Amino acid sequence: xxxxxxxxHPEPNSFNAHxxxxxxxxxxKEGCNVELINLYEENFDPxxxxxxxxxxxxxxxxxxxxEQRHHWKAAKLPSEIKRHVELLKxxxxxxxxxxxxxxxxxxxxxxxxxxxxxxxxxxxxxxxxENGVMKGKRALLTVTAGASANxxxxxxxxxxxxxxxxxxxxxxxxxGFTILEPYLIYGVRGGLEDHDQMEQDLRLKKEVLNFxxxxxxxxxxxxVIFNKNDDFKEDxxxxxTAPEYSPFVCHCPDTWRANR
Length: 260
Prior knowledge:
By secondary structure, this protein is an alpha/beta fold. The chain has 8 helices and 6 strands; from the N terminus they run E-H-E-H-H-E-H-E-H-H-E-E-H-H. The relative contact order is 0.12. Keywords: Oxidoreductase.
């Protein structure tokens, strides 16, 4: 099995990087082929720019999607994008490690999706969702937050962290990945005093052991359920009898809130 582990944290010795290294160790012991990369260490440029495309289809107006498709077909994508696309296409399991910053992913990881999820290469009108190019592959978000589990809960002061991770999960599902339930670790804080730091270290050590054990039994990891193409009408809205799995795709937002 091929495993691609992508870390998005600027500190090489961060807890996120530590988790990624532990995940790599687990899969290597299982005999898997593991590719471990850190976007910051690679100095990955998250901004889509016209200068990335040397053989422009339209030199007067920059249309990122059209240039992506054009350069994909001509086999002229930027070398770093071509490498990341090939890594994705060759992997069986993708794990994204990142801190929850300002209620979402770090900008470098969002930019990675913007540039690497190449139109024409990783998706098009015929290859999306359950018919996506990444069909049969699994993706897992491993996410840390400085706030407590209570603060990040459905009734917490910071809002439902699991719910706010729907956009990156939807993006991965859009190109065909089967999405595993995110692994969330709360209360990862810096600048603590000695006693508090020791308590946090002990707690996080337990989290790491649990994470490793979960990875060993990856086949049992629960999946996030999304609506299928057959759940939608021709106008791309839910059929009246279709199930609801998220407040982002539902029959009536008010009803969803009232029933939950």
